[in-house]
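Dear colleagues,

As part of the handover before I leave the project, I'm documenting each prediction I ran so the next person doesn't have to rerun anything. This entry is a single chain, and its sequence is reproduced below.
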Amino acid sequence: MNPYVLEMKEIEKSFGVPVLKGVNFSLKKGEIHALVGGNGAGKSTLMKIMTGVYTKDSGTILVNGKETVIQNTHDAKKNGIGMIFQELSLVQTMTVEENIFLGSEVTEKGLRRTGYMTERAKKVLDDLGIEVDPKEVVGNLSVGMSQMVEIAKAMEKEAKILVLDEPTASLSDAETKYLFKMMRDLQEKGVSMIYISHRMNEIMEIADSISILRDGKIVHTGKIADITMEEIIAHMMGENTGKKFDWVPRKYDKDGDDLLRVEHLKINDRINDISFSLKKGEILGFAGLMGSGRTEILETLFGLRKKEGGTVLRNGSAVTVRNPSEAIRSGFALIPEDRRKQGLVLIHSVKENAILPKIKQLTRHGFVDEKKADAMVEDNVKKLNIVTDDIHKRINLLSGGNQQKVVIAKWMNMEPEVMMLDEPTAGVDVGAKAEIISLIRDYAEQGKGVLFVSSELAELMAVCDRIITIFDGHITGEIDRKDIDTEEVLQYAIQQK
């Protein structure tokens, strides 16, 4: 009996340049199989071929041992294949129930059977242990709960193969534990899962098997129990294994004037009395649980949220920031948490995204100086090691890590005094993380200030000179990096009220 529910053999795909080069991938029934690789390795392309978003150039796909043609998403669903994308595909203004049946509404004589669909939605939610009202509007749900609804949507369509692409990127620890419990319950029911993540500790915890992609080829496949985290990283990075993101003590004038000073900032009734300072050349981290107020502080400084009280001073002078335009003029830049929704225009090219904030400076007599713009973006590509064959390539065709580098490049082009980064390495591989951290350090070395938010404690400890802890909208402490010996010390500090 064939143990494989899915087999992909000698899969080839090219977008002008080869992306997949004879990839062989197999998935057993009831298995959780991790798929890892650096940005641009081909993970997303392989999964999009499996789920019908892309068509393969050559190769064979077998489902339950039978050769299968998957030319579109309908073919994939027909074969029991569902995908939970990193960027949630739910319609925010519709209810949970409406999203679950979106595109497959149950009708009778041209009328929607709303009562029947409500009961079906409630049953699939109950079966998965998801406590949410089918009539609740999705926009009112947390990111974690929305992720669960995505899974319910796939399971209602009787998916037997589930692809989860960076499912924990925006989840809290508690939500991640809940997701893993759900995955194990589905596994017991015979559902097979492909788990894509850059978080190695999660892969070691949840996966049974692992396949590692590098440069469009599978370089290792085996049981997770037979490989170490260090070996996984070595396979992923090849000759680049030496890249690490250990903490490097940095020098800056700790007694100098404040580049930025925030006094008694009030954002709302919950996030209140926020005071801190930032020196020139300093990288200041914000550590806290999801929902603690980290993101809201950065968004308020950038004018995306209205402050209700308090003072913001830059170089000793009070600044008024009511919108992003005023923030940019005041020397602020923000790398947002969600690069695809807030940081990029996905239908535009690498060049168009990179020059967007600086388009006024590049315009003369009503026309963009294309030669100057091209030179600037080519320099960005070179300095930030952005992997693209052309600066005119649509940015949605780049890997997540390279998209993030373009977001960083476009704001670095503005030369802000205060660079604010919110989860800047979410969904990028260890190699790209090391590169981004190096870019942040280099920027601070120029005498600029950096505010850095991350849910990954190892990352905060690698890049920050000083870390402020936040709990439930209030600053609870401040620690010099040299005084933090282990992640446990920082974890303990975060959870103190």
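DSSP finds 17 helices and 24 strands in the chain. The longest helix spans residues 173-188.

All the best with the project,
I.
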